Structure formats: C-alpha cells, structure tokens
Amino acid sequence: MPRTIDTDVVVIGGGAAGAHAALKVHAEGLKVLLIVKGFLGRSGCSIFAGNLQLVNTKVSAEEEEKWLTIRTKHMGGYLLEQDYVKRANRFTESEFYPEMERRGLYIRRNAEGKFIKSEGRGTNVWAPLQGYSGTFVMELLRKEILNKRIPLLQETMVTSLLLDEGKVVGVTLLDILRGEFIAVRAKAVIVATGPSNYLATRSTGTREQCANGFAMAYRAGAQMQDIEIQWWHCSDIAWPKAWTRLHIYPNPMPATKETVRLYNSEGEMFFEQGMYPLAMQPYFLQLKHLYPHVKRGKARWNGGYFAGYTHIDPSIMEQYSYQTQFLKALGLDLSKDLIECGISWHMTLGGIRTNTETMETSLPGLYAAGGVGSHGVGTITFVSYDGTLAAGGACARARAMQPPRLPEEQIAREEQRVMSPLKVRSGDGLLPAQVKKRIREIMWEKMGYVKSEAKMEEALGQLAEVREKLVPRIGLDSLSRTWNYDWVDALDVEDMLDICELTIHSAKVRQESRGAFFREDFPYIDNKNWLRHTVMSRDGNALRIETVPVELKYIRPESEREDFLSADY
Amino acid sequence: MTSGNTVSAKIFRYDPAADKAPRYETLEVPLEKEMRVLDVLDYAVENAGVAVGYRWFCGVKRCGMCGVSVNGKPVLACWEKATPSMVIDPLPNMPVVRDLVVDRSALEQATLEMEPCLKRKEPYESFPEPLTHRDFEDAYRLMTCIECYVCTAACPVLSDANHREFAGPASLVQLAKVALHPKDAGERVAAALKGDIYACISCYECSNVCPVGINVLEDAIEKLKRRCAAQSESNPGAKHARIFTDLIRKFGRIHPPTLMRQSKGLMQSVSKMSMALAMYRKGKVQVRPQTVQGIEEVRKLFKAVEKDQ
Amino acid sequence: MKFAYYPGCSAKTTCPELDQSMKAVAKKLDLDLAELEVATCTGSRQIRDSNEELFLTLNARTLALAERLERDVMTVCATCLLNLTEVNATLKQNAELRRKINANLAAVGLEFRGTREVTHFLWVLLRDIGAEALAKKVARPLRGLRVAPFYGCHILRPKDVLGFDDPDSPTSLDTLIRVLGADPVAYDGKKRCCGFHVLMTKEDLALKISGRRLSQARDEAADCLVTTCPLCHSSLDPYQSAVEKTLGRKIRLPVIHLPQLVGLGLGLAPRELKLEGNAVSTAPVLEKMALQA
C-alpha cells in the first residue's frame, strides 16, 4: 500500500469553487484537504473571469426575470435549472460581493466613490480592471486559505476516485514535484476542476486542464450531462500563440455605451453587442454572425477577422482594461488598428450531472461544484455559490459517517496504471505532449464550432487512430520522478481521449442546434423534442446514453422550432 | 547558424535528482509573428520533442508561474518577446527543481509570514463600502501584482550578496498592497522590519523587470519605508533616515563625518578611522560642517512642511 | 551652452575632485555653468524614504532656483539626477500637488512653474554637444586604455522617468569612452548597483555588492573604472580597501569620475583634474598614458 492521508473532505481544484468549498469545510470545523493540479488561484479558469455582474434581483420581479433570462436563455439555451439560477443570483448579491469586499476586493470606483459601470445597462463591474477581476478574486481567496493554514497540496494530480460498495471514499493522487503516489481516505469528495479544458488547438483551457475531473468521475461511474454543449469564444487574439487566452470581451465596456465591434477581412463590421440589447453576454450570437463570413471566405476560424475599439475613446481602454497592455505590446494603436482574432474552445456547459440543490452527483459521496458540474454557466460568482453549497452537503455527510474502508485492490490497480507511463521512449517514440497536440488538432479540425455527423465520425476515426498508433509510441526521456511533467502529460492523454470521444458521442445524440451548440446538419432549435438533457454513463466498458426532460419552471421558449442562425439564443 | 527567420534557443537542462551537472541544449525554432519565449518552449516540447521542463498555466500574465531568465534578465516567458538568440535559464535566487522549474516555496513562505491579508480595525459593515478611487489610489498601483517573483529574482541583495534576511521585493509588494488598503489596520511596520526592508539598496532592478509594470521600489517599498521611518524608534535604517533629514535641516547639505558618527555610533565610526584619515589626507574630509548659503530659507521650508503634517 | 550647475553634496564634501574637474572640463567645453550654491541636498534616498512632502518641497526649491536663472539643471550625481527629474515630472503632471508644494515655497518667495528640464553631464556630452563634436575636441585620445564603464542605477532606472538609455543594455557611457579613444570593458556589473545606499546602515551588505562589481571589472583586465555618480564613486573608491578586506583579494582599481576621464581626453593636465584626489592611486592610468601626475 502506498502512503495514505486521512481527512474528512477532499476538494479537488484550486479555482473559485474549490476555494469556497475548502473555506466552508474549514469553517464548519471539519478536516479538509485541498488538492490542486496547478497552483491554488493561479491555474484553472477562475483567474480569467473578466467581468463581474452586479446583480440585484431583490429590487424587483422584473430585475429577477431579466437575470433569469440572461442566464437561462442567452447563456444556457434553456438547459439550466431555473431555481438554481435564482438562488445563485441571490448568493452573488448577498454573500459573494460582501465577503469579497470584506477580504479586500476593490471594485473600480470613480473619485466620488461610484462604481465604474458600462453606461446605460450598468450591470458589469470590474475589480479593478476589465479582464482582471477573477485574478484578483482568486488572489484574495488564496491568501485567506494560506493564512488559515488549510491543508493544501499543489502541483498534485488526482488520478482517480476510490470506491467502496459504490460510494466514493477517497482519491489517489500523484505528487508531481516528488513523483509520489498517495491514497487519500475521505468521507466525501468535492470535484471542482472547472469547465474549461485544453482540448482543441485554440482553447481557453490552461495547460493543466485536460478534462481530468470529467474523466475520473466518468470512470468511477458518475452520470455526465449535456457534455456536448461546448461554448466557443469568438474573439480571442489570433497571435502570438501564447496569448490565445487573451479575450476581447463582447460584453458592455466600462464607462461607455459602446462595445467591441467585429469586422471581416474586408473591413465590414458584422457584430456588436448593441444588435441584441437583451443578450448582455452575446457570445453565441457573435459566432452565428461570424459563420457566414467564414463560409464566404471573408474570415477563418483562426484569423482573418478582427475586433476593433476604434469607435471608443482610447483613454477608456487605457484606464479600465487589462488587455490594453498586450495590444500595445503588439504595437497596435487602438484608435485606428484592429485586432486579429480567432475562436477558441471555451467552457463545456454540461459536465458531471448534479443535483443543483445539493451539488450531489449520481455517486454517493461525490459532489461536483462549479463548471465541472452540468448546471453551470461559468460565472465566478455562481461557482463560488456551488463550492459553498457542495461543502454544506459534504460536511453533513462526513459528520454522519465513520471513516470508510479503503479499497486496497483498486489502489494497487491504480498505482500500476499511474506508474505505467514510466518507460523510456524508443527511437520513433513520441513525447506525450506531442500526442496531446495531435488530439487537439483533431478536435479543432473536426469538432469545431460547426459540427456534422460526417465530421464527427471522422473525428472518432482519427481519435481511434491516435489510440492505436500513437499512444503505443509514447515514452519519456527520463524516468526521474522529480517534476517529470511528461509523466503527467502521459496520464492526461488517456483522460483527453476518453472525454473527447464522450463529447463526440454525446454530440451525435443531440440532433438539433442550441445556444453554443451548432450542428450544420440540424440547423434549427428543436424545442419540441430537444428541451432535454443528454445523460451518459459507463456501463461496464459500454456507454449508456439516455435523455431526460429539462424542467422549465419560470420561463420557456415561445416557439417549438426556430431557425438556429437567426434566433437570439 | 541563426538566420533572421529562426530563433536559436540555448536552454538550461538539469535534473538534480539524476544529473551530475547542468548542461545546455540548443535548438533552432522557426520565428513566428510576435512569438513569445513561451511559444519557443512549447515548440521545443510539442514539435521538436525536446523534453524540457518549464512551468506555465495561462500564457497571459495571470498565473505568474512562467518566470525564466532570458539572456540574464528575469522575465515572464509568456510576456517576453522571443529574439533570434536567447539563452534561457531558470530564475535566479531560488533552487532549481528541474530544467527551468524553480522551487518558490521559501519565498512564498516569506510572503505568508508578512500576513498579507486585510486586517480591519472595525468590522466590515455592508456592500458597498463608502470609499472612493482616491482612497485606493496607492493600493491600486499594486493590485495587478501577480506574485511572479520576477522582481525577487532580479534583486542583487539576494543574488549578489546572498542576504537571505531580506524578504525580497515581491513579498514587500504583497505587504504594501494590503498595508495601503484604506481599511487596513495590521501591524505592517513590524512585518516590514522583520523582512529587513532596510536591506533594500534602492537599485530599481525590481521596478525594471516587473512584467506588469509596477514601480516596485517607489510604489511599494518606499511607501513602507516611509511608515517605518515615522514609526520605528530603534531600527537603524529608520533612524538613519531621520538623522539624515535633521542634518539637512541644520546645514542644508550632508556632512558625512557627522552623519556617520550619529548613525553608526561613536564606536563603529572609530573603526573607520584609518579610512577617514586617508580621506582626510586627500582633502576629502571637512572637519566642520559647511552650511549652505540661505539656510534660513531651508529652515522655513522645513517649518512649512511640518505645519502641513 | 548654459546650465544651472547642481554639484550635489558629495562633490562638495567627500569628492571635491569631482567638482573641480567638472569646472575645469566645463571651461574647456565652453559650458557656462551657474552653480546653484544655495541649493540643498536632494535628500539622497533618505528624505524621500521618510518624508515625501519635504522631498518634493526641497527639490522644488532647487528647480525653482534654476527656473529663476532660466536655465536647465545639470548635475554630476545620478541620484540627484533622478530625484530632481522625478520631482520635476511629478509636479509638472500633478496640478493639485504643485499647488500644495508652491504654498510651501511661497514662504521663501519662490514658485515652481515647471519650465525647465534636468540633465546629467553625461547626457549633455552626448545629446547637447554630441559625440561627433566632442570627438573633434579630443586632444589626447586615450588609446589602449581599458575603461570599465559604471553607469549607476539612478541614471538608468526607472526607464520611464529617465528614458535616456536602455537599462538592460546601456550604451551611452560606452560610446563616450570610445569617443575619448579608450576601450570600454564589457562586464555585467556595469549596469548594476554599487550598494551605496546601505553603506551607512549595512556596510557588510554594501561591500559585498560593490565587491562584485570591482571583482568583475578587475577580472576583465580593466585599467580603471569610470563613474557618473559620486555615490557609486564612494562605494568603489574610498571604500575599496574595505571591499578588499571583505573579498580577501587585492583589487587596486583606479576609479575615475566622468569629468576626470573626459578631461584627460581633452588634454587637461592631471593636476587640473585633481586625479591625485582619488583614494585609490590613479598613477597606473597616468603611467599607461605616459603622463606625469
């Protein structure tokens, strides 16, 4: 048996959901172990939260409905749990902002003390710059966790969930720095690994985000839901490659009525947020407008179209936007130059199927908080709510339970699997990072924004080829166990392949288009048949696929069938 | 050979657990438009199959984890533009874990010991607090610090003098960030002195390398030093600043022998006697302080400033 | 060319040879220097580190004195250069602060208007006189002399305030050395710190830092080192014997002020440049130039 650690609750993931969960378990007086593959508050997607929505749903029923509509319809394509959205909005206004301000969050104000907002709509705020808010939020959460000496393992990869009689009783992990395999006994596990994964050539997922959270839950038998609903960013910078994650926000800008405009290769403006006043997060609409220009050769998915601030007073960008320094470093003069953009694989709206009242998954003992769950809309305030909520449930469970038994046989099997990549590559061997790159290329080319049955079949074929021909060639240069990231990459390859295939299978099931999800062979929103979740789970080595209806408690679409490209959601 | 269209990157390779000594691996990488150092490292692994270890997460100056040294200058790999000829080393002033990956834990511990969390005197009331941008002006300048420790890597107090009592600029920025928050009431002077803030030599290397453009020395360290000077009775650095100021009040300019005697104390000054004598012979020591002409004006200004304060 | 000359405290106390050589060289270069005799210390790092308003007020006075002469300020001290430049820029930009400081200056009948610039002798040589014109005035090229340039922090950093040279690969002093016919020595320490600002409070630390610079220059077989700042000069010259004790190594490297080196190139006699006033003997340099002390 490897070394074991005992705790009450394991939290996996160092973003806002994981941080809130760890703080809450600690506050409840239980033992928590926070495990982060990268570094707490430095890796993952929470640091990318650019805008904060100053919701205030308490003021009126209209305000509550406005926010319900923005989230449920314009961001969620009516697939969200509407009661959850209401509760998360309440948390945002009554807990998130006060707690973060208490910790020292500074929301940018003017000299008179009024918040800087977008003029007119006035719901976004920034801490302290547009594009930087999540980084600041995470800094404060990180410091509080460190200051409270909450047990924390960083650069540590959770490789599997441990099961005893169908219940989750702990995790196995790989300490990347030392190369040690460890088993953790826990009464409850909260997975909070985020919704973004680096699964396509252009992606907002950070280096370490390789769908590990999805993969460990799926392998353990948890149900996955709506994993095919993949949100793409439409305006991320085209080059340099390192800056792919530099996002040009389509939302309302600070201190102005204006928003960014998109132009095709011939300089024709084809989108600005003002075209859809009610959709304050017009991500999916940007893509619908880009699509015909790509068709006509006036843009490419990875370049040849542009974002522009030329109609906005340059001092606004200078004062309020984090992105401006990057654009200036490229020598761009924002008063006249445009910014070349590409689309990128962003969040998965679906994920591990959760009960949104408790964040429980279909596996007893496993909770999913934040974007890794199936209910999310990728807002830092919402995932903070999830973390708090999941911790509440996990604590109640832990209090009612004796320390569980660890499944020794499973641990031994897992240790063998984790150690198996430790072999030196042969002459024609590949580093695992090279295989990861190939997987991302396949997803970019065949599983991009525009999907069809034929392309998805090709993608499955090419991924199968990776499994057959490339994976066996994987090897490492060194068997040293000290910070051997190639070893981590090798473990990631398995998770990426599993989840990419799962995503494609799921996408093949949904024979319609909706929100972020566009099938060229089904270019309509089918509200009659497809206000349903796809639910997938492992059945032995087979895949079980079912669909379940979505509950539409407060708002619902007006028509049964709409043309996808012209619909405003 | 380096042509205009390639990058020649000489990359530090070392696994202390397995290698006897560090070595360099040189490779040619096609130069792309506005390519960053991080792109060169990605290319090394993903295209050239060179298994170099380097840390990064975000690529856009948020995670603060991709610090390396390029041609001797500490930088963030994601921010620094690639040039045709580069030597890429791990950041100095921290132990090497593997290749370009360093162990920051000792520095992070130094930051943590500064207790960089807001400490309120009055309990927090409600959102939003009635504060203006002016209240936050000083703290605001430091808010985009991502704790990348690139400034600490550039600090000669650590690298040239190995003076490990000094917490280093990055930790002091974290301290200043919270100390300058309008609601903070923590004991920040004690923390600054514990971090040996007066070991800072005011060289601006930290400000010069900061990837997010913070003037570390002026907007963080100097602001803390001002508090120390005002609040610390006994710290030699704080005392020295006050003695210096008093001499200017008296004479308008510095009189080095008096400054030394008052600041170092008589005994220590005596130890400098042979140097002083040699300087005296060279005409470098004026036994009596010279007063600048118009010292009355200077004293009036001191009074005017003190009246404000 | 006319300047308000601000020598700084050191040139008036610990290194009079700097002030005297500057005046001798100015004459040779037809620089009309009006010395700001009533000006105070710029506060080194200590006043700015302890009292910001005092720092602004004292330096605003010096700047206002130069404004009254309608001359830009030229200094031979890098730390004074930075202090005066920053105060000048701050008060020019910030009207509210300017009003506050001017209220203080009113007590002595002065006003800061922000009409003048601050410069350093090195910049005057390269920017106002120009390398070409200066080269024509070189009467005694310093052929074969290996000079280690020592820029000093506060003439390079912070770049956005000073802006004359690139702090990562500075060239101005190297250029000047070449114009004088000598060979600049390449070494990393040329753009680094001398340690002066902790010399009084943490001498061991300061000596370790200056020791690094001196050893590097010595290792590169420099004949001498040239400084643009009397504070660097203090760390490297009078304290050199102390550095040697710390290092356990003989250095014996002559450390020459910028105007002294320029004066040699212009053909001035070593005595006119007070080269006998430097702590470490400058005789080896003069010998190499076949000059009598």
Account of the protein in words:
The complex is a heterotrimer of chains A (569), B (309) and C (293). Chain A is of the alpha/beta class and 569 residues long. Chain A is 33% helix and 19% strand. Chain A folds into 3 domains: 3-50 and 75-81 and 131-230 and 347-409, 3-Layer(bba) Sandwich (FAD/NAD(P)-binding domain); 233-346, Flavocytochrome C3, Chain A, domain 1 (Alpha-Beta Complex); 420-534, Up-down Bundle (Methane Monooxygenase Hydroxylase, Chain G, domain 1). Chain A has helices at 16-27, 61-75, 82-103, 133-147, 212-220, 283-295, 314-320, 324-329, 380-399, 408-419, 432-446, 453-470, 485-509, and strands spanning 3-6, 9-12, 32-35, 52-53, 124-125, 152-153, 156-164, 167-175, 180-185, 188-191, 224-225, 230-237, 261-263, 269-272, 305-308, 339-348, 351-352, 366-368, 450-451, 518-519, 524-526, 532-539, 542-549, 561-563. In chain A, the strands form 7 sheets. A 5-stranded parallel β-sheet of chain A has the order 6-3-2-10-18, covered by helices on one side. In chain A, strands 12-16-15-13-14 form a 5-stranded antiparallel β-sheet. Chain A has a 4-stranded mixed β-sheet with strand order 1-9-8-7. Chain A is globular and about 65 Å long. The mean pLDDT of chain A is 96. By secondary structure, chain B is of the alpha+beta class. Chain B folds into 3 domains: 6-102, Ubiquitin-like (UB roll) (Roll), CATH 3.10.20.30; 105-231, Fumarate Reductase Iron-sulfur Protein, Chain B, domain 2 (Orthogonal Bundle); 236-308, no CATH class. Chain B contains 14 helices and 7 strands. The mean pLDDT of chain B is 95. Chain C has 2 domains: 2-120, Glutathione S-transferase Yfyf (Class Pi), Chain A, domain 2 (Up-down Bundle), CATH 1.20.1050.140; 130-288, Rossmann fold. Chain C is 49% helix and 10% strand. Chain C has a 4-stranded parallel β-sheet, with helices on both faces. In chain C, helix 2 runs parallel beside helix 13 (258-266). Chains B and C meet through helix 8, helix 9, helix 10, helix 11 and helix 13 of B and helix 1, helix 3, helix 4, helix 6 and helix 10 of C.
